[in-house]
Structure formats: structure tokens, C-alpha cells
Design brief:
The complex is a heterodimer of chains A (221) and B (201). Chain A has helices spanning 8-12, 14-46, 51-66, 69-84, 90-116, 119-127, 132-162, 174-185, 188-220. Chain A is mainly alpha-helical. Classes of the chains: A mainly alpha (221), B mainly alpha (201).
Chain lengths: 221, 201
């Protein structure tokens, strides 16, 4: 245990690590925003009365939820260029993979939220002469939004942590920079400890915020 | 693939053992240990698994002077990570059993440990089954991250195969299908448990 800590290495490279954190935040925000939209499309597809569409959407969500994110990230990074002929930067590949992965989870949350609104609400809206779309937009969705907020918060927090995985395709986010720095400085203990602490400091308040959302939803019932 | 299953099982058993101890410490409000247990749970739930695995594999040996094999480091990392969320599942499960139950057990002359073992845990266990199943699925998927610290599990072997054959797309696709084959039956089983045991709420 007689290890001599050298935290000055961390202080010197703190700006590099925080620069990595900016990438982490940017990637998380972009993927979350994109998957909120894509998830909506997928959830509508899953609730569609047309069977083939429903089937495709079910396979899509099952597969993305049943395979490791790491596999998906590598697959998008290495295989999409072969299939499409377009080469994406690591950042774009990471954003695509994260968005696809999240959209499966987000769509399940939406679906549960929409289904949790009682049937009678929809029937009442239709009886008032609204079209199915109007009923969805004006009656069902506004009520669902309150119910889906807490689980979406959880998804956001795990996304924030999962972005560390894209370090394997060299996106210059926090984890990747930690890896590079620990090799350059020969100080893996200090650097990785700092990386873990930075993740903790940034994620912990968000996790508490999500706990609060759940708490509030329970109070309202 | 066998290593993937092994590591997942080790992490599940280790995680449940850690989780049970931590949950009981937090519920019993043992001074000091209670605080440490909360800190442990908060820390492991608020940092990426990958950061934890890498820290244990690369940084811990420097601190202790004891080098770990990739398999040991990986199992330890996943177990600690799993322990943090199993403890939350156990805690929620135990607290969900009404107070009256433990009071009745105590009134019948049981000690607190007996009440916990004979009355609370058997009932809580049933309620905890679905979330435990979901966690197992998460563990199988997260075990893919061990490839990064060179544990020879499914993902690592696929990577090796991919660089030998130059057929990365095919190999990755097969790996994805194998993972799906492992997790899909599990997730069906969890769905079933949810329908069967989930409390109406």
C-alpha cells in the first residue's frame, strides 16, 4: 500500500479530461434527442393495427435490446461503411449506434405510457368527433408525457454512462482521453481514478434528479 | 461463449451476495457501515461499468501490488457493479413487505434474524424475481465489455476471429445473433415472471 500518489499529473491534464467530458455531453444530448424522435416512430409502429409493421418493429426492439451495446457500436462502425459505401467518422458512428440502441428502449417507454392511458379516454375523444390522430395528439400524448418522464430520465442516466463504451472506436470522449493519458503519463491509477470521479460528480446529481422525478410521480399517483 | 456464461453467472452470484449484505446493512441502519454501503451503491451506479472494469484491471494492481488475471478482474468488477443494483432490488423488495408482517413475526417470539429469514425474505423473493431476471440479462450483455480488458469471452473471441479472417462484418453479425440467442429466452422468461408475480399497481 506504500504507493506514492502523483495527482499533479491529473491537474496538468485536467483540461484534456474536461474537453473529453464536453464530447461525452454532446454525444449524449445528440443521441438522446434523436432517439426521442426515432423511439416515437418505433412505438407508433409497434402499436400499429397493420401486422407486418408491428412485426418488424417488434423484431427491431427485441434485437436491439437483446444484444450488447458494444456489439452494436462495433457493427455500425465496421459494417455500415461496407454496406453503404459511406464512411462515417467515429463520432457519427457512435451517435448512430447509440441512437438506434436507445430508440428501442425509448419506444418501449412510450408504448407503456400510451397504453397506460385508459381506453375510455380514447373512446371519449373519438365520440367527441376527433380523428384517431387528433385523439392521440390532444388527449393521449399530453397525459402520457407525465408518466414517461421518470423512465426517460433513467434512460438518459444510463446513456450518459454508456457513452464510455464508444471509447473503443476512438471517439475522443472522457473515457478515451483517460485511456490515452494513462498511457502517455504512465500514471493509470491517478488518471483512471480521476476519470471515475469526474463521471461520478457529473452523473450523481442527475441520478438524484431522476429519483426525485420517480418520487414525484408516485406522490401524484 | 462458455466464458461469457461463466462470467455472467459468477457476477450474478457474487453480485447477489454483495447486494444482500449491502441491502441488510442499509435497512438495519448499522452506523458507519450504513453510510459506507450507500456510498458504494451511489458510486457504482453513477459511474460507467467500463470505467470500473478498467480501474480494477489497470489501477487496482498498482495500489495493492497484487496483479489480477483478466478473468478475476473482470469477475470482480462485474460482481461489484451487479452488487450495487442487486442491493437496490433487495432493499426495495424487503421494504415492500408490510411492517405488520415483521411485527407479527416478532410478536410470535421470533428474533429479528428469524423474522427476516422465515417471513420477510421468502415473500420478498417472489416480488424480486422479475427485476433480478432483468438484471441477469443486463449482466450477460455487459459481460461483452470484458473483451476490452482481454477476457477471452464471446466478444473477444469474435474480435480475434475477425482480425484473422478479415471478415469483421460477418463475425460481428454472428456474435450479435449468439448474444440474442442467449438473452432472448431470458427476456421471455422475465416477461412471464412479470405477468405472473408483478404486484398490481
Amino acid at each position: 500500500m506504500g504507493y506514492q500518489w502523483h495527482f499533479e499529473v491529473v491537474v496538468e491534464s485536467l483540461d484534456v479530461l474536461l474537453g473529453g467530458l464536453a464530447w461525452t455531453v454532446a454525444l449524449s444530448l445528440l443521441s438522446m434527442a434523436a432517439s426521442l424522435l426515432l423511439g416515437l416512430v418505433v412505438s407508433f409502429a409497434r402499436l400499429s393495427p397493420w401486422r407486418p409493421l408491428r412485426g418488424v418493429a417488434t423484431v427491431y426492439t427485441d434485437f436491439l435490446r437483446g444484444t450488447p451495446l458494444l456489439v452494436q457500436i462495433l457493427w455500425v462502425y465496421y459494417s455500415l461503411p461496407i454496406l453503404t459505401g459511406v464512411v462515417f467518422s467515429p463520432f457519427v458512428s457512435a451517435a448512430i449506434a447509440l441512437t438506434l440502441n436507445l430508440s428501442a428502449f425509448v419506444s418501449e417507454v412510450y408504448r407503456a405510457g400510451i397504453l397506460s392511458i385508459a381506453r375510455a379516454q380514447r373512446e371519449a375523444a373519438l365520440a367527441l368527433g376527433m380523428t384517431t390522430w387528433q385523439a392521440m395528439r390532444r388527449v393521449i400524448l399530453p397525459q402520457s408525457i407525465r408518466r414517461v418522464l421518470p423512465p426517460l430520465g433513467s434512460i438518459w442516466v444510463s446513456l450518459f454512462k454508456d457513452t464510455a463504451i464508444v471509447s473503443v472506436i476512438a471517439v475522443p470522449e472522457l473515457m478515451y482521453r483517460g485511456k490515452v493519458l494513462s498511457i502517455e503519463t504512465y500514471r493509470p491509477l491517478e488518471i483512471y481514478t480521476a476519470v471515475a470521479l469526474i463521471y461520478f460528480i457529473v452523473t450523481y446529481p442527475q441520478a438524484r434528479g431522476v429519483d426525485w422525478l420517480f418520487e414525484r410521480a408516485r406522490v401524484r399517483g | 461463449m462458455i466464458v461469457t456464461v461463466q462470467v455472467s453467472l459468477v457476477a450474478m452470484v457474487g453480485g447477489m451476495a454483495i447486494g444482500l449484505v449491502v441491502a441488510l446493512l442499509r435497512i438495519a441502519r448499522v452506523p458507519v457501515l450504513n453510510g459506507l454501503a450507500s456510498l458504494y451503491v451511489d458510486f457504482f451506479r453513477s459511474t460507467p461499468v467500463l470505467a470500473q472494469l478498467i480501474w480494477i484491471y489497470y489501477a487496482l494492481p498498482i495500489l495493492t501490488g497484487q496483479s489480477l488475471t483478466a478473468f478475476v478482474a473482470g469477475s470482480l468488477g462485474l460482481s461489484l457493479y451487479a452488487g450495487s443494483f442487486f442491493s437496490e432490488i433487495f432493499r426495495a423488495g424487503i421494504l415492500s413487505i408490510e411492517r405488520g408482517q415483521s411485527e407479527a413475526a416478532l410478536a410470535l417470539g421470533m428474533t429479528r434474524a428469524q423474522a427476516m429469514r422465515r417471513v420477510i425474505l421468502p415473500q420478498a423473493m417472489v416480488r424480486m424475481l422479475p427485476p433480478i431476471g432483468s438484471s441477469l440479462i443486463t449482466l450477460v450483455k455487459d459481460s461483452a465489455l470484458l473483451s476490452i480488458i482481454s477476457v477471452p469471452e464471446l466478444m473477444r473471441q469474435s474480435e480475434t476471429l475477425a482480425s484473422l479472417t478479415f471478415r469483421r462484418m460477418e463475425v460481428l453479425t454472428v456474435a450479435a445473433v449468439v448474444y440474442f440467442g442467449l438473452t432472448y429466452p431470458l427476456s421471455r422468461a422475465v416477461d412471464y415472471l412479470h405477468r405472473r408475480y408483478a404486484p398490481e399497481s
